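batch job 7 of whatever, protein = Inositol-tetrakisphosphate 1-kinase 3-like isoform X2
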Amino acid sequence: MLQYASNLNLSDCYGKIGVPRQLVITEDPTSIPRAVAEAGLTLPLVAKPLVADGSAKSHELSLAFDQFALSKLDPPLVLQEFVNHGGVLFKVYIVGESIKVVRRFSLPDVNKCELLDTAGVFRFPRVSCAAASADDADLEPDIAELPPRPLLERLARELRCRLGLRLFNMDIIREHGTRDQFYVIDINYFPGYGKMPGYEHIFTDFLIGLVQV
């Protein structure tokens, strides 16, 4: 689904949207280093389970720092280039025409020294879950600032049309050190709306609107 967001031109909406380069690995972990090299992906890489079945493992992310560590990963999975983003992501819930955004803690930034001195795979269970809310955290203003509303509205409208979905959410990050460069790093259809603040009224209004149409 991220492919639908990768070719959108939303530069007129107070920000730019991109998708980190990624690669799907379905089997044979020993082939991962070669596949990554052939695809030209840059380390470190985020490894995400390909199947989201609600289990704890399906919510676990890994960060691989070197080529040797790649062969220790457990396919099937998606490898995605890591983008520093201040350790905070924006979870954007779409319910019909409604948009709700919450802040969640995410993977920490990786500086150049850490990239040179760190090896192996680091695992992060349940990143960005509801318990990792950053809405009330004392964050730097440039990290805490939400994506521009016009950008989210245009993005949601385009994805609704391209995906044919009216119930989905997105994980969006702002590249650290920039104000208007955003990346969509994940899209989920029919997510757990119980984690969205005020979901009862928003979801009820959506269902009533469907009946009235």
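notes: The beta strands are 16-18, 22-25, 45-49, 61-64, 77-81, 88-95, 98-105, 121-124, 167-174, 181-189.
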